[in-house]
Amino acid sequence: MQSLLTTQRQAFLDDGFPSAKTRIDRLDRVKDIHIRYKDKIVEALEADFGSRPRGQSLATDVASIIMEVKETRGKIRQWMKPQRRKTPLMLRLTGGRAELQFQPLGVVGNISPWNFPVELAFSPAIGALAAGNRVMLKPSEATPQCSALIEEMVSSAFDPAEMAVVTGGVEVAQAFSQLPFDHLVFTGGPEIARHVMRAASDNLVPLTLELGGKCPVVVGQSADVKTVADRVISTKTINSGQLCLTPDYIFLPEGKVEAFIEEARKVLASCYDSLVDNPDYTSVINERHWQRLKGYIDDLEERKVRVEVFNPAGESFDDPQKHKLPFIFPVEPDDEALIMQNEIFGPMLSIKTYRSLDKVVEFINDKPRPLALYYFGKDRQEIDALCQRTTSGGVTINDCAQHAACYDLPLAGVGNSGMGGYHGHHGFLQFSHSKAVYHQGLFSLGKFLRPPYTPRKIKIIDSMV
Protein backbone atom coordinates (compact mmCIF):
# COMPACT_ATOMS: atom_id res chain seq x y z
CA MET A 1 0.00 0.00 0.00
CA GLN A 2 2.83 2.39 0.82
CA SER A 3 4.44 1.74 -2.55
CA LEU A 4 1.11 2.42 -4.28
CA LEU A 5 0.77 5.69 -2.38
CA THR A 6 4.33 6.62 -3.32
CA THR A 7 3.59 5.86 -6.98
CA GLN A 8 0.45 8.01 -6.95
CA ARG A 9 2.13 10.91 -5.17
CA GLN A 10 5.10 10.90 -7.54
CA ALA A 11 2.78 10.80 -10.56
CA PHE A 12 0.87 13.71 -9.07
CA LEU A 13 4.06 15.71 -8.62
CA ASP A 14 5.37 14.82 -12.09
CA ASP A 15 2.16 15.80 -13.87
CA GLY A 16 1.67 19.06 -12.04
CA PHE A 17 -1.64 20.93 -12.06
CA PRO A 18 -4.14 18.72 -13.97
CA SER A 19 -6.07 20.48 -16.71
CA ALA A 20 -9.86 20.61 -16.78
CA LYS A 21 -9.72 18.26 -19.77
CA THR A 22 -7.80 15.66 -17.74
CA ARG A 23 -10.19 15.90 -14.80
CA ILE A 24 -13.28 15.62 -17.00
CA ASP A 25 -11.77 12.59 -18.73
CA ARG A 26 -11.29 10.86 -15.37
CA LEU A 27 -14.85 11.64 -14.33
CA ASP A 28 -16.16 10.34 -17.64
CA ARG A 29 -14.36 7.08 -17.00
CA VAL A 30 -16.08 6.81 -13.61
CA LYS A 31 -19.40 7.26 -15.35
CA ASP A 32 -18.53 4.80 -18.12
CA ILE A 33 -17.58 1.96 -15.77
CA HIS A 34 -20.87 2.34 -13.93
CA ILE A 35 -22.75 2.06 -17.21
CA ARG A 36 -20.68 -0.91 -18.44
CA TYR A 37 -20.82 -2.75 -15.12
CA LYS A 38 -24.35 -1.89 -14.01
CA ASP A 39 -25.66 -5.47 -14.21
CA LYS A 40 -22.61 -6.84 -12.39
CA ILE A 41 -23.06 -4.17 -9.70
CA VAL A 42 -26.65 -5.32 -9.12
CA GLU A 43 -25.53 -8.96 -9.00
CA ALA A 44 -22.70 -8.24 -6.56
CA LEU A 45 -25.02 -6.31 -4.23
CA GLU A 46 -27.52 -9.15 -4.33
CA ALA A 47 -24.78 -11.67 -3.53
CA ASP A 48 -23.41 -9.67 -0.60
CA PHE A 49 -26.76 -8.80 0.98
CA GLY A 50 -28.58 -12.02 0.17
CA SER A 51 -31.56 -10.01 -1.03
CA ARG A 52 -31.49 -6.48 -2.43
CA PRO A 53 -33.97 -5.03 -4.95
CA ARG A 54 -32.58 -4.46 -8.44
CA GLY A 55 -34.45 -1.16 -8.69
CA GLN A 56 -32.91 0.15 -5.50
CA SER A 57 -29.40 -0.94 -6.46
CA LEU A 58 -29.65 0.71 -9.86
CA ALA A 59 -30.93 3.93 -8.28
CA THR A 60 -28.58 4.21 -5.31
CA ASP A 61 -25.35 2.63 -6.54
CA VAL A 62 -25.43 3.30 -10.29
CA ALA A 63 -27.72 6.15 -11.32
CA SER A 64 -26.70 8.35 -8.38
CA ILE A 65 -23.04 8.22 -9.43
CA ILE A 66 -23.81 8.88 -13.09
CA MET A 67 -25.96 11.87 -12.14
CA GLU A 68 -23.27 13.25 -9.81
CA VAL A 69 -20.62 12.95 -12.52
CA LYS A 70 -22.83 14.79 -15.01
CA GLU A 71 -23.54 17.52 -12.47
CA THR A 72 -19.86 17.89 -11.58
CA ARG A 73 -18.12 17.73 -14.96
CA GLY A 74 -19.98 20.75 -16.31
CA LYS A 75 -18.79 22.95 -13.43
CA ILE A 76 -15.10 22.04 -13.23
CA ARG A 77 -13.76 24.86 -15.40
CA GLN A 78 -15.72 27.39 -13.39
CA TRP A 79 -14.57 25.96 -10.06
CA MET A 80 -10.92 25.87 -11.12
CA LYS A 81 -10.74 29.61 -11.86
CA PRO A 82 -8.86 31.69 -9.29
CA GLN A 83 -11.18 33.88 -7.22
CA ARG A 84 -10.33 37.52 -6.65
CA ARG A 85 -10.27 38.64 -3.01
CA LYS A 86 -10.56 42.09 -1.50
CA THR A 87 -7.23 43.91 -1.07
CA PRO A 88 -6.70 46.53 1.67
CA LEU A 89 -6.79 50.13 0.45
CA MET A 90 -3.09 50.79 1.03
CA LEU A 91 -2.16 47.73 -1.04
CA ARG A 92 -4.67 48.59 -3.75
CA LEU A 93 -3.02 52.01 -4.09
CA THR A 94 0.24 50.25 -4.98
CA GLY A 95 -1.53 48.14 -7.61
CA GLY A 96 -1.58 44.97 -5.48
CA ARG A 97 -4.00 42.14 -6.21
CA ALA A 98 -5.14 39.16 -4.06
CA GLU A 99 -6.69 35.88 -5.17
CA LEU A 100 -7.43 32.33 -4.13
CA GLN A 101 -6.05 29.51 -6.23
CA PHE A 102 -7.48 26.01 -5.80
CA GLN A 103 -4.67 23.49 -5.69
CA PRO A 104 -5.14 19.71 -5.63
CA LEU A 105 -4.08 18.14 -2.35
CA GLY A 106 -2.32 15.12 -3.85
CA VAL A 107 -3.54 11.62 -2.92
CA VAL A 108 -6.93 11.13 -1.28
CA GLY A 109 -7.79 7.87 0.51
CA ASN A 110 -11.36 6.65 1.00
CA ILE A 111 -12.45 3.93 3.44
CA SER A 112 -16.01 3.17 2.36
CA PRO A 113 -18.77 1.22 4.17
CA TRP A 114 -20.91 -1.79 3.36
CA ASN A 115 -24.42 -0.31 3.22
CA PHE A 116 -23.99 1.39 -0.18
CA PRO A 117 -20.64 -0.12 -1.08
CA VAL A 118 -20.39 1.10 -4.67
CA GLU A 119 -21.98 4.53 -4.27
CA LEU A 120 -19.96 5.47 -1.19
CA ALA A 121 -16.72 4.28 -2.75
CA PHE A 122 -17.11 6.50 -5.80
CA SER A 123 -19.08 9.54 -4.59
CA PRO A 124 -16.19 11.05 -2.57
CA ALA A 125 -13.85 10.07 -5.41
CA ILE A 126 -15.83 12.30 -7.79
CA GLY A 127 -15.01 15.37 -5.71
CA ALA A 128 -11.40 14.26 -5.30
CA LEU A 129 -10.91 13.70 -9.04
CA ALA A 130 -12.68 16.97 -9.89
CA ALA A 131 -10.20 18.76 -7.63
CA GLY A 132 -7.31 17.12 -9.52
CA ASN A 133 -6.23 14.48 -7.00
CA ARG A 134 -5.21 10.83 -7.22
CA VAL A 135 -7.43 8.36 -5.31
CA MET A 136 -6.94 5.15 -3.33
CA LEU A 137 -10.08 3.21 -2.34
CA LYS A 138 -10.50 0.72 0.50
CA PRO A 139 -13.99 -0.82 0.19
CA SER A 140 -15.61 -2.75 3.04
CA GLU A 141 -14.64 -6.33 3.83
CA ALA A 142 -18.32 -6.95 4.76
CA THR A 143 -19.26 -6.85 1.05
CA PRO A 144 -16.51 -8.94 -0.60
CA GLN A 145 -18.28 -9.40 -3.95
CA CYS A 146 -18.71 -5.64 -4.33
CA SER A 147 -15.14 -4.98 -3.23
CA ALA A 148 -13.77 -7.37 -5.84
CA LEU A 149 -16.00 -5.81 -8.49
CA ILE A 150 -14.94 -2.27 -7.57
CA GLU A 151 -11.32 -3.36 -7.99
CA GLU A 152 -12.14 -4.83 -11.41
CA MET A 153 -14.05 -1.70 -12.46
CA VAL A 154 -11.28 0.67 -11.48
CA SER A 155 -8.47 -1.40 -12.98
CA SER A 156 -10.38 -1.62 -16.28
CA ALA A 157 -10.41 2.16 -16.70
CA PHE A 158 -7.63 3.71 -14.61
CA ASP A 159 -3.89 3.48 -14.34
CA PRO A 160 -2.98 2.60 -10.72
CA ALA A 161 -1.19 5.96 -10.54
CA GLU A 162 -4.60 7.67 -11.07
CA MET A 163 -6.98 5.58 -9.00
CA ALA A 164 -6.49 2.21 -7.34
CA VAL A 165 -8.31 -0.17 -5.00
CA VAL A 166 -6.95 -1.96 -1.95
CA THR A 167 -9.01 -4.91 -0.68
CA GLY A 168 -8.76 -6.95 2.49
CA GLY A 169 -10.00 -7.31 6.05
CA VAL A 170 -9.78 -5.26 9.21
CA GLU A 171 -5.98 -5.44 9.36
CA VAL A 172 -5.72 -4.00 5.86
CA ALA A 173 -8.15 -1.21 6.76
CA GLN A 174 -6.08 -0.39 9.85
CA ALA A 175 -2.88 -0.22 7.80
CA PHE A 176 -4.67 1.86 5.16
CA SER A 177 -5.75 4.42 7.78
CA GLN A 178 -2.12 4.79 8.91
CA LEU A 179 -0.85 5.85 5.47
CA PRO A 180 0.33 9.47 5.06
CA PHE A 181 -2.43 10.55 2.67
CA ASP A 182 -3.01 14.18 1.82
CA HIS A 183 -6.64 13.66 2.88
CA LEU A 184 -8.60 10.66 4.15
CA VAL A 185 -12.35 10.01 3.95
CA PHE A 186 -14.06 7.54 6.28
CA THR A 187 -17.73 6.58 6.29
CA GLY A 188 -18.94 4.40 9.15
CA GLY A 189 -19.66 4.48 12.88
CA PRO A 190 -18.22 6.85 15.50
CA GLU A 191 -16.39 4.08 17.38
CA ILE A 192 -14.36 3.01 14.33
CA ALA A 193 -13.92 6.67 13.37
CA ARG A 194 -12.07 7.29 16.62
CA HIS A 195 -9.53 4.60 15.67
CA VAL A 196 -9.21 6.08 12.18
CA MET A 197 -8.59 9.55 13.63
CA ARG A 198 -5.91 8.24 15.99
CA ALA A 199 -4.15 6.46 13.14
CA ALA A 200 -4.38 9.49 10.83
CA SER A 201 -3.12 11.83 13.54
CA ASP A 202 0.35 10.27 13.46
CA ASN A 203 0.81 11.80 10.01
CA LEU A 204 -1.43 14.85 10.60
CA VAL A 205 -3.72 13.63 7.82
CA PRO A 206 -6.85 15.81 7.51
CA LEU A 207 -10.12 13.88 7.60
CA THR A 208 -13.64 13.91 6.25
CA LEU A 209 -15.88 11.75 8.45
CA GLU A 210 -19.46 10.73 7.60
CA LEU A 211 -20.74 8.90 10.67
CA GLY A 212 -24.54 8.87 10.75
CA GLY A 213 -26.27 8.86 14.12
CA LYS A 214 -29.87 8.70 15.34
CA CYS A 215 -31.74 10.98 12.94
CA PRO A 216 -34.98 12.33 14.48
CA VAL A 217 -38.28 13.17 12.78
CA VAL A 218 -40.37 15.90 14.40
CA VAL A 219 -44.01 16.09 13.35
CA GLY A 220 -45.77 19.39 13.98
CA GLN A 221 -49.45 19.83 14.80
CA SER A 222 -49.98 21.31 11.33
CA ALA A 223 -48.65 18.21 9.53
CA ASP A 224 -50.83 15.77 7.61
CA VAL A 225 -50.24 12.36 9.22
CA LYS A 226 -50.90 10.48 5.98
CA THR A 227 -48.22 12.49 4.17
CA VAL A 228 -45.82 12.02 7.09
CA ALA A 229 -46.27 8.24 7.05
CA ASP A 230 -45.91 8.02 3.28
CA ARG A 231 -42.63 9.94 3.19
CA VAL A 232 -41.05 8.61 6.37
CA ILE A 233 -41.82 4.96 5.55
CA SER A 234 -40.71 5.42 1.94
CA THR A 235 -37.29 6.44 3.28
CA LYS A 236 -37.22 3.60 5.84
CA THR A 237 -37.79 1.01 3.11
CA ILE A 238 -34.56 2.03 1.36
CA ASN A 239 -32.06 -0.70 2.17
CA SER A 240 -34.39 -1.82 5.01
CA GLY A 241 -33.26 1.13 7.08
CA GLN A 242 -29.54 0.47 6.57
CA LEU A 243 -28.92 4.07 5.62
CA CYS A 244 -27.05 6.72 7.62
CA LEU A 245 -29.76 9.28 6.82
CA THR A 246 -32.72 7.06 7.66
CA PRO A 247 -35.20 8.24 10.31
CA ASP A 248 -34.32 6.58 13.60
CA TYR A 249 -37.17 7.81 15.81
CA ILE A 250 -40.22 10.00 15.31
CA PHE A 251 -41.81 12.55 17.62
CA LEU A 252 -45.60 12.76 17.16
CA PRO A 253 -47.99 15.14 18.91
CA GLU A 254 -49.99 13.37 21.60
CA GLY A 255 -53.05 11.69 20.16
CA LYS A 256 -51.60 10.96 16.71
CA VAL A 257 -49.80 7.67 17.32
CA GLU A 258 -52.61 5.37 16.21
CA ALA A 259 -53.28 7.37 13.06
CA PHE A 260 -49.59 7.27 12.16
CA ILE A 261 -49.29 3.50 12.73
CA GLU A 262 -52.40 2.89 10.63
CA GLU A 263 -51.06 4.99 7.75
CA ALA A 264 -47.58 3.46 8.06
CA ARG A 265 -49.09 -0.02 7.75
CA LYS A 266 -50.93 1.06 4.60
CA VAL A 267 -47.72 2.32 3.03
CA LEU A 268 -45.86 -0.88 3.88
CA ALA A 269 -48.75 -3.01 2.63
CA SER A 270 -48.57 -1.18 -0.71
CA CYS A 271 -44.90 -2.19 -0.93
CA TYR A 272 -44.90 -5.76 0.39
CA ASP A 273 -47.38 -8.64 0.57
CA SER A 274 -44.69 -10.80 2.18
CA LEU A 275 -41.14 -10.25 3.42
CA VAL A 276 -38.96 -13.34 3.85
CA ASP A 277 -38.69 -14.35 0.20
CA ASN A 278 -39.69 -11.03 -1.29
CA PRO A 279 -36.90 -9.81 -3.64
CA ASP A 280 -38.01 -6.22 -3.04
CA TYR A 281 -37.27 -6.45 0.69
CA THR A 282 -33.58 -5.98 1.50
CA SER A 283 -31.92 -8.38 3.91
CA VAL A 284 -29.94 -7.25 6.91
CA ILE A 285 -26.35 -7.29 5.65
CA ASN A 286 -25.16 -10.32 7.65
CA GLU A 287 -25.90 -12.58 10.59
CA ARG A 288 -23.93 -10.45 13.07
CA HIS A 289 -26.08 -7.38 12.41
CA TRP A 290 -29.20 -9.56 12.30
CA GLN A 291 -28.38 -10.84 15.79
CA ARG A 292 -27.72 -7.28 16.95
CA LEU A 293 -31.17 -6.16 15.79
CA LYS A 294 -32.82 -9.23 17.32
CA GLY A 295 -31.15 -8.20 20.56
CA TYR A 296 -32.97 -4.85 20.35
CA ILE A 297 -36.26 -6.69 19.97
CA ASP A 298 -35.49 -8.97 22.91
CA ASP A 299 -34.60 -5.94 25.02
CA LEU A 300 -37.93 -4.28 24.15
CA GLU A 301 -39.81 -7.43 25.15
CA GLU A 302 -38.00 -7.57 28.48
CA ARG A 303 -38.92 -3.94 29.10
CA LYS A 304 -42.56 -4.69 28.13
CA VAL A 305 -42.56 -1.93 25.52
CA ARG A 306 -45.48 -1.96 23.13
CA VAL A 307 -44.17 -3.09 19.73
CA GLU A 308 -46.24 -2.88 16.55
CA VAL A 309 -45.08 -5.42 13.96
CA PHE A 310 -45.62 -5.38 10.20
CA ASN A 311 -45.56 -9.01 9.04
CA PRO A 312 -48.26 -9.26 6.35
CA ALA A 313 -47.87 -12.98 5.64
CA GLY A 314 -47.34 -14.08 9.25
CA GLU A 315 -43.89 -15.45 8.41
CA SER A 316 -41.10 -16.74 10.64
CA PHE A 317 -37.88 -14.73 10.73
CA ASP A 318 -35.71 -17.27 12.53
CA ASP A 319 -33.54 -18.32 9.57
CA PRO A 320 -30.06 -16.84 10.12
CA GLN A 321 -29.14 -17.65 6.52
CA LYS A 322 -31.72 -15.17 5.23
CA HIS A 323 -31.10 -12.60 7.98
CA LYS A 324 -34.37 -10.77 7.49
CA LEU A 325 -36.62 -9.15 10.09
CA PRO A 326 -40.13 -7.74 10.06
CA PHE A 327 -40.75 -4.00 10.24
CA ILE A 328 -41.28 -2.99 13.86
CA PHE A 329 -42.52 0.16 15.58
CA PRO A 330 -41.71 0.36 19.31
CA VAL A 331 -44.10 2.83 20.96
CA GLU A 332 -42.67 5.01 23.72
CA PRO A 333 -39.50 3.01 24.42
CA ASP A 334 -37.65 4.33 27.46
CA ASP A 335 -34.36 6.13 26.90
CA GLU A 336 -32.36 3.21 28.37
CA ALA A 337 -33.67 0.76 25.76
CA LEU A 338 -30.95 -0.46 23.39
CA ILE A 339 -32.94 0.79 20.41
CA MET A 340 -32.78 4.34 21.82
CA GLN A 341 -29.10 4.11 22.75
CA ASN A 342 -27.65 3.02 19.41
CA GLU A 343 -28.13 3.87 15.74
CA ILE A 344 -30.62 1.25 14.57
CA PHE A 345 -29.52 0.56 10.97
CA GLY A 346 -32.44 -1.77 10.33
CA PRO A 347 -36.20 -1.96 9.63
CA MET A 348 -37.27 -0.32 12.88
CA LEU A 349 -38.69 3.08 13.80
CA SER A 350 -39.24 4.15 17.40
CA ILE A 351 -42.30 6.29 18.13
CA LYS A 352 -42.37 8.93 20.84
CA THR A 353 -44.97 11.57 21.69
CA TYR A 354 -44.72 15.14 22.94
CA ARG A 355 -46.74 18.03 24.25
CA SER A 356 -44.14 20.80 24.09
CA LEU A 357 -41.74 21.43 21.23
CA ASP A 358 -39.30 22.81 23.79
CA LYS A 359 -39.09 19.34 25.34
CA VAL A 360 -38.41 17.85 21.90
CA VAL A 361 -35.59 20.32 21.32
CA GLU A 362 -34.20 19.52 24.76
CA PHE A 363 -34.36 15.77 24.06
CA ILE A 364 -32.54 16.11 20.73
CA ASN A 365 -29.89 18.39 22.20
CA ASP A 366 -29.21 15.93 25.02
CA LYS A 367 -28.19 13.31 22.43
CA PRO A 368 -25.11 13.18 20.17
CA ARG A 369 -25.58 15.41 17.15
CA PRO A 370 -27.27 13.51 14.30
CA LEU A 371 -26.40 13.49 10.61
CA ALA A 372 -29.88 14.77 9.75
CA LEU A 373 -33.10 16.09 11.26
CA TYR A 374 -36.52 16.04 9.63
CA TYR A 375 -39.55 18.22 10.29
CA PHE A 376 -43.08 17.90 8.97
CA GLY A 377 -45.50 20.80 9.20
CA LYS A 378 -46.25 24.31 8.05
CA ASP A 379 -45.42 26.28 11.18
CA ARG A 380 -42.62 28.73 10.36
CA GLN A 381 -41.81 29.28 14.02
CA GLU A 382 -41.39 25.54 14.58
CA ILE A 383 -39.17 25.24 11.50
CA ASP A 384 -36.99 28.13 12.68
CA ALA A 385 -36.83 26.74 16.22
CA LEU A 386 -35.64 23.32 15.07
CA CYS A 387 -33.15 24.70 12.54
CA GLN A 388 -31.71 27.28 14.93
CA ARG A 389 -31.90 25.54 18.31
CA THR A 390 -30.73 22.07 17.31
CA THR A 391 -27.53 21.05 15.53
CA SER A 392 -27.42 18.38 12.83
CA GLY A 393 -25.49 17.70 9.66
CA GLY A 394 -28.47 18.64 7.47
CA VAL A 395 -32.22 19.21 7.55
CA THR A 396 -35.07 18.26 5.24
CA ILE A 397 -38.44 19.93 5.72
CA ASN A 398 -41.57 17.90 4.91
CA ASP A 399 -39.62 14.89 3.68
CA CYS A 400 -36.62 12.76 4.65
CA ALA A 401 -33.05 12.70 3.32
CA GLN A 402 -33.82 14.81 0.27
CA HIS A 403 -31.16 17.39 1.10
CA ALA A 404 -28.59 14.68 0.30
CA ALA A 405 -30.01 14.45 -3.24
CA CYS A 406 -29.12 18.12 -3.88
CA TYR A 407 -25.58 18.04 -5.23
CA ASP A 408 -25.14 21.74 -4.54
CA LEU A 409 -25.58 21.01 -0.82
CA PRO A 410 -22.84 19.26 1.16
CA LEU A 411 -23.31 15.79 2.63
CA ALA A 412 -21.85 16.67 5.99
CA GLY A 413 -21.95 15.63 9.62
CA VAL A 414 -21.24 17.63 12.74
CA GLY A 415 -19.89 16.53 16.10
CA ASN A 416 -20.62 12.85 16.64
CA SER A 417 -22.05 12.52 13.11
CA GLY A 418 -18.87 13.60 11.38
CA MET A 419 -16.77 16.47 10.08
CA GLY A 420 -16.19 17.97 6.67
CA GLY A 421 -18.42 17.25 3.71
CA TYR A 422 -18.56 16.58 -0.01
CA HIS A 423 -20.90 16.68 -3.04
CA GLY A 424 -20.68 19.20 -5.83
CA HIS A 425 -18.67 22.35 -5.24
CA HIS A 426 -18.30 21.46 -1.55
CA GLY A 427 -16.49 18.27 -2.55
CA PHE A 428 -14.21 20.20 -4.89
CA LEU A 429 -13.33 22.62 -2.09
CA GLN A 430 -12.96 19.84 0.51
CA PHE A 431 -10.32 18.12 -1.62
CA SER A 432 -8.53 21.32 -2.69
CA HIS A 433 -6.11 23.60 -0.91
CA SER A 434 -7.39 27.17 -1.11
CA LYS A 435 -4.05 28.86 -1.60
CA ALA A 436 -3.72 32.56 -0.82
CA VAL A 437 -1.79 34.35 -3.59
CA TYR A 438 -0.86 38.04 -3.55
CA HIS A 439 0.54 39.89 -6.58
CA GLN A 440 2.56 42.94 -5.54
CA GLY A 441 2.07 46.18 -7.44
CA LEU A 442 4.58 48.82 -8.49
CA PHE A 443 6.20 49.18 -5.09
CA SER A 444 6.09 47.61 -1.64
CA LEU A 445 5.00 49.20 1.60
CA GLY A 446 7.54 47.05 3.44
CA LYS A 447 10.15 49.79 3.50
CA PHE A 448 7.79 51.97 5.51
CA LEU A 449 7.54 49.31 8.21
CA ARG A 450 11.22 48.57 8.73
CA PRO A 451 13.70 50.40 10.95
CA PRO A 452 14.66 53.11 11.46
CA TYR A 453 11.28 54.35 12.69
CA THR A 454 11.54 58.01 11.75
CA PRO A 455 8.88 60.54 12.76
CA ARG A 456 7.49 60.30 9.22
CA LYS A 457 7.10 56.49 9.49
CA ILE A 458 5.51 56.81 12.93
CA LYS A 459 3.02 59.25 11.46
CA ILE A 460 2.13 56.81 8.68
CA ILE A 461 1.72 53.93 11.17
CA ASP A 462 -0.35 56.15 13.50
CA SER A 463 -2.69 56.89 10.59
CA MET A 464 -3.47 53.16 10.38
CA VAL A 465 -4.58 52.94 14.02
Automatic annotation (TrEMBL):
GO terms for MF: aldehyde dehydrogenase (NAD+) activity
Residue ranges occupied by any Aldehyde dehydrogenase domain in the UniProt entry: 19-437
UniProt entry tagged with the keyword NAD: yes
This protein's UniProt keywords: NAD, Oxidoreductase
Active-site residues, Swiss-Prot/TrEMBL: 210, 244
A Pfam family: Aldedh
GO cellular component, one term: cytoplasm
Biological processes, Gene Ontology terms: aldehyde metabolic process
CDD domains the record matches: ALDH_CALDH_CalB (cd07133)
Family: Belongs to the aldehyde dehydrogenase family.
Protein name (Swiss-Prot/TrEMBL): Aldehyde dehydrogenase
